Amino acid sequence: MIELQNVAMSYGGRELLSEMTLRLMPGSFHFLTGPSGAGKTTFLKLCYAELSPSSGMLSLFDRDVRMMTRDDVAAMRQRIGVVHQDCQFLDHLSVAENIALPLSVSRRAADPKELRELLSWVGLRAQADALPPQLSGGERQRAALARAVMMSPDIILADEPTGNLDWEMSQRLLNLLIELNRMGKTVLIATHDLNLIRTAKSQVATRVLRIANQRLQLAGADL
Ligand SMILES: Nc1ncnc2c1ncn2[C@@H]1O[C@H](COP(=O)(O)OP(=O)(O)OP(=O)(O)O)[C@@H](O)[C@H]1O
Fold first, then answer.
1. Ligand 1 residue neighbourhood (C-beta within 6 Å)
2. Which domains, ranges and CATH numbers included, belong to the chain?
3. DSSP codes, the chain
4. 41 CA distance to ligand 1 centroid (A)?
5. pLDDT band at 223 (very low <50, low <70, confident <90, very high)
6. In this predicted model, what pLDDT tens digit does every residue of 41-83 receive, in sequence order?
7. Full-model pTM
8. At what angle do helices 167-182 and 194-201 cross, to 10 degrees?
9. What's the CA gap between 214 and 66, in Å, rounded?
10. 179 Cα: distance to centroid of ligand 1 (angstroms)
11. Residue nearest ligand 1's atom 6 by CA
């Protein structure tokens, strides 16, 4: 699904990530951890072809990203749902309209019943017509998750999805991600939150990747 062979990533000639080799299999559940500034967000950006590797081979859905046209990348991105760290919304549109926005990019209208079900699933039925600034932090994160799954992607990438949330809200979001994984979605979550990783490990088979010294490693069972 996502495969890297000896991938490196540099910014302005400075190598941030080196010698990364990894294969994410369909239906797997991974965490990505590492110190602040280690390159977790950069790694996720590689995984949805927002960035191209400086060297090495990156393939998404069995296709080498170097061979993809712009249209190929756009089509491939519809299969990847991303929950960004800052989860920005268009503040003049309602929560429901924001969640349905990915469909409008491909000039499709949301099925009202599906949209209602999605809002219920993330516990935001009552906030459907609210504007994003009226949402709490936890509600924003759940709206961001709903937006990411609107297109029924095969892969969910989440960048610090529980960053500013209390423990109860973090668990609620984690449960939604676990549910998606049980439905067959491949999940990759970048997080500093070791408690979240431990909680997930007790519920689902996960692997923990760690970025250390520019390299991607498989973390030990001690986590
Ligand atoms: N577009 C860019 N141009 C130059 N440097 C960048 C760019 N984006 C990120 N960096 C640098 O790359 C490094 C890694 O950033 P990244 O956001 O990937 O780390 P991170 O592990 O996600 O950090 P955090 O946990 O704090 O979110 C940082 O030093 C950052 O300043």
1. 11-12, 16, 34, 36-42
2. 1-79+155-223 (3.40.50.300), 91-152 (no CATH)
3. -EEEEEEEEEETTEEEEEEEEEEEPTT-EEEEE-STTSSHHHHHHHHTTSS--SEEEEEETTEEGGG--HHHHHHHHTTEEEE-TT----TTS-HHHHHHHHHHHTT-PPPHHHHHHHHHHTT-GGGTTS-GGGS-HHHHHHHHHHHHHTT--SEEEEESTTTT--HHHHHHHHHHHHHHHHTT-EEEEE-S-HHHHHHHHTTS--EEEEEETTEEEE--TT-
4. 7
5. low
6. 999 999 999 999 999 999 999 999 999 999 999 999 999 999 9
7. 0.93
8. 40
9. 23
10. 30
11. 11
Which ligand 1 atom sits nearest the alpha carbon of residue 39?
18
ipTM: 0.96
For 125-159, b/e burial (b = at least 16 CB within 10 A) is eebeeebbeebeebbbbbbbbbbbbbbebbbbbbb
- CA 39 to ligand 1 center in whole angstroms: 6
The count of C-alpha atoms lying within 13 angstroms of the C-alpha of 192, restricted to the half-sphere facing its C-beta, is 10
Structure tokens at 76: 């491939």
- Cβ burial of 185 (10 Å; 0-12, 13-18, 19+) is buried
